[in-house]
What we know:
By secondary structure, the protein is an alpha/beta fold. It is built from 12 helices and 6 strands. The protein has a 6-stranded parallel beta sheet, sandwiched between helices. Helix 3 (46-56) packs across helix 4 and helix 6 (117-126) runs parallel beside helix 8. The protein is globular and about 60 Å long. 32% of the residues are buried.
Amino acid sequence: xxxxxxxxxxxxxxxxxxxxxxxxxxxxxxxxxxxxxxxxxxxxxxxxxxxxxxxxxxxxxxxxxxxxxxxxxxxxxxxxxxxxxxxxxxxxxxxxxxxxxxxxxxxxxxxxxxxxxxxxxxxxxxxxxxxxxxxxxxxxxxxxxxxxxxxxxxxxxxxxxxxxxxxxxxxxxxxxxxxxxxxxxxxxxxxxxxxxxxxxxxxxxxxxxxxxxxxxxxxxxxxxxxxxxxxxxxxxxxxxxxxxxxxxxxxxxxxxxxxxxxxxxxxx
Length: 268
């Protein structure tokens, strides 16, 4: 398993080595198995990563946000965006259970099986009379959002045929939906080398980007792995205070002996 600690072997195993434990460990209140355990488990990776996605995308109080991907990181990016005071958060996916979770946390779910997700977001905003009335003449080009998050990465699906991978699909959509002077945060994984990828360029981690649109619209781009320790103390305190509840994404609790079967389900 991937550990998030560079060359160290992963943490999804019976035994775990913690380098520099005196500074790397985070002190938590409570007892094992209590009502906050699932929330605290998510501090190891997923919750800080999602919060970092919002940092990369410059999500602030009043921001409008579109998140592509409603997996654990996408859903907790929506939770984080709302914690940071976002005015409106859209979450794009095609899996009903994921979209239901997005609605549960206060986001607007966009199902790309029902049509172009960018047009769906534009249409949702057009139908918001108060939003439309607040635009000055000429501001119709600001129908999109100010912050976009790619929580999918290089294994993006073709919107019109989800059975096929289309690595550029999400970034193309974000280039269209992010307003001029907005910011794109890429937290989805892109590998520098991927021998199993389709096409020679993708095997070397090279992807087509709508660079002209990013440049013309003055869109900022943030990307990269999460520095967990930068956030985990503050996120722990949000959990302890009852403000953050990342465990809403937890669906199953299984013993380690069931891990191979769990991974099969996860993969499907």
